Amino acid sequence: MSARKKLKEAERLIAYRDVFHYGKDIVETDIFKEAMAQTHHRKTTVGDHSASVAVIALRMCRKLNRRVCHLDERRVVLAALTHDLGIVGRHEKYSTNIETYLRHPSDSAKIAMDLLPDMNKKFYRSISRHMFPLTILPPTSMEGLIISVADKMASFKDISPRKAYSSTLNQ
Ligand SMILES: [Fe+2]
Ligand SMILES: [Fe+2]
User: Fold this and answer.
1) Which end of the chain is more exposed for a tag (fewer CB within 10 A), N or C?
2) From the CA of 131, how far away is ligand 1's center (Å)?
3) pLDDT tens digits, 9-50
4) Which residue segment(s) compose the domain that 65 sits in?
């Protein structure tokens, strides 16, 4: 393995560790435990997918913070971990896939408001707009853009033949 690849792997492992440091209170909630049991993108779970989004988002956040931004890592991780909690129980809540796609972002934001009541509007909006451009309104902050992009990257990894990114959650 080249030095560059070793460095990338080390950064990824550190990001995993830090996701659980920042997100400990979310990961231990009942709804996140339910998310760990609900299949998502056919071969992963909502919880595993959310952890993947958090790792990708945290690494993007760190790259940007090395250059121009001053993003709050903890807020980015918490938004990533909660961005899909609205989809938990989808078969009881929604009758079609389209309804699921369109409604789960705002339902996730409502759940985040309950779990993390001290965050600001920008934080909740980064969750409620993560499905842009499917849902018409775009993210309004750099954190929101990171969550939306990281979600798409994690979803692509989820459905690709390679091993799911976040399987360490189950170890
Ligand atoms: Fe989503
Ligand atoms: Fe997602």
Assistant:
1) C
2) 6
3) 999 899 999 999 999 999 999 999 999 999 998 889 999 999
4) 3-170
Which residue type, as a one-letter code, is found at position 95? S
Give, rounded to a whole angstrom, the gap between the first and last alpha carbons of the chain.
24
Number of structural domains found in the chain: 1
- Distance of CA 16 from the midpoint of ligand 1 (Å): 20
Q: What is the pLDDT of residues 142-161, one digit of tens each?
A: 999 999 999 999 999 888 87
* pTM of the shown model: 0.91
Tokens representing 132 are 């842009």
| CA 49 – ligand 2 centroid, Å | 7
Q: What CATH number is given to the structural domain containing 57?
A: 1.10.3210
Token output for 139? 């993210």
For ligand 1, a single-atom ion, which residues have Cβ within 5 Å? 84
Angle formed by the axes of helices 142-159 and 73-82, nearest 10°: 50
Q: Tens of pLDDT along 66-94?
A: 988 899 999 999 999 999 999 999 999 99
